[in-house]
Amino acid sequence: MSHEQSDQERVESRAHLLPEEAAAGSDDAETQAEAILAESDIREEGQNAAPDTFLERRTSDQTVTAVEPPD
Description:
By secondary structure, the protein is mainly alpha-helical. It has helices spanning 7-14, 19-24, 29-45, 60-63. It has one domain (7-63). It contains four helices and no strands.
């Protein structure tokens, strides 16, 4: 969580449904956002909860080999 962003700001930001979520529908987008963020926070806090847990943090440019366009 950003130090500058309150919990309510996070919920409001996440409550904007993704296209897939909008297609499926949501009775209460704000409650859904709260649940998603709470689960995310738990997973972030417990990264090393299990002995075999391994979390790799990379950016997309570190995971994909760039393809050079033909000359």
